[in-house]
User: Fold this.
Amino acid sequence: MDRRRRLSGWGRTSPSVATVHAAGDDADLRGLLARVGPRGILARGLGRSYGDAAQNGGGLVVDMTARQRVLSVDADAALVSVEAGVSLDQLMRLLLPRGLSVPVSPGTRQVTVGGAIAADIHGKNHHVDGSFGQHVTALDLLVADGTIRTLTPDSAESPLFWATVGGMGLTGLVVRATLRMKRVETAYCAVDTERCADLDDLMGRMAEGDHRYTYSVAWIDCLARGRSLGRSVLTRGQPATLEQLPPTLRTRALDFSPRQLLVAPPGIPSGLLNRLTVRAFNEAWFRKAPQERRGEVQGIASFFHPLDAVARWNRIYGPRGFLQYQVLVPFEAEDTLRRCLGMLSDAGQASFLAVLKRFGPANPGYLSFPAPGWTLALDVPIGAPGLGALLDRIDEEVLAAGGRGYLAKDSRLGASAVARMYPRLEEWRAVRRTVDPDGVFVSDLARRLGL
Assistant:
C-alpha cells in the first residue's frame, strides 16, 4: 500500500515528503510508470546516501528493499545474481561462509546493490580493485518506456550501463544485477597500523607503500595545527589467509555473524559534537593508536564497518543533523589538499570522522566519482559557525585543481559547480535522454543540481 512519508538522507538534512511504494514484481514496477505524475519517480534503498540523492519530494519513491532475493550463486565462477534490494550485509552473511566476499565495500554494509550501483561506491581498495561498478557483470534496468533492458559493460548498450553506474538512479530502476565476488580464505584481515606525525608524513607513506596492500585508509585529526597539521593514523591490510589466523580461529575462519552492540538513543541535543568534545576525542584516538603494529588480525566487520555496531549512529549529531563532505583532488594537487586541511583546521571545524584514501584509475562511468588522486571525507555538524562559506572556499580550491565532490554524499552543491566537476556531464545527459526523454526518473538532488 502506498503511503506518504517524510524522507531524508543519513545526514538527516533537507527532508521532503513523497509517496512511497513498496516494490512488487516486474509487472508491478511497469504499472507504476503508467501512473507517474509530474514530479516523477525514483528508487530508494536503505537510505544511506547522506544528502538528498534518494528523495523525490512531491513525487513517487519506490522502496526497493522489498526486492531482496538472492537469485543464484555460482561458487565456481564467483558470480551471484540478486535483486536490487539485497544489501551488502545480506550478501556477506550468506556468502562469506562459502569463501566469497563482496568485492568493494564502503564504511557500512547497510547498502543495497541497487544503491551501490547508482552511487558507484568505493572502499579502501580502490587503488587495487576499482569501484563497485567494475564488478557488475550485468544489470537489468527498467526504463521509462516500461521495457527492461539487460546491460553489460562491454555490449552495444555499454553507454547506458556506464550512465547507470554512478548515475544516481536517474536512468531507470535497477531491478537485478549479477556481481563478481572476491574469493577469500577467511572472514578476517591482517592489518598494519602506523601513527603519522603530519600530512606530509602520511602522504609519503601512502604514496610509497599502498601498492603493497589491498586496503588502505587514514584517519586524520582535522583539528591539529602547526607542525602537527594532518597528524593521522594509517591503517592498511590484506585479506587474512588461514595460516595468519591464530589456532583458536582457524576452525571458524569463515564465520560471519556481526551484531549490533548499541543503539544511539533519540533526543540527543545538537551541539554534543563540538570543537571541545571532538578535540578531546581526536587527542585520545591518536594517542591510543600504536606507533607501529604489524599483522594484527581483525574481523571484516570491525575493519570495514565499525559504525555498523551502533544502530542509528547518525542521531549523535542531534536533530539538525550533519553533512558528509567528500572531495577528490588529482595526485599533482597535494598542495591543494594541504591548503584545504589547513582551512579546516584554522576554522576549528569539528569532525571526528575524517579519512584520507588514494584512488586508482577511473572507470568509464560518466558520473563516477573516483579518479586517480587523493580523496578526503569528513562529517561536520549542521550549524557550525561559518560552515557554508568555508566549504564554498574549499570547493573553489578543489575546482581550481581539477577535482570534484561526491554526489552520493553531497547536500549543498549548486549546478554550476557540478558542471565544472564532472566534464562528461553532457555526455551523460545525452545517454539519459535516449531512455528518459521526459525526465521521468528524478530526485531532489537532480533538481538541485540541474541534472
In short: The radius of gyration is 21 Å. The chain has a mean pLDDT of 94.
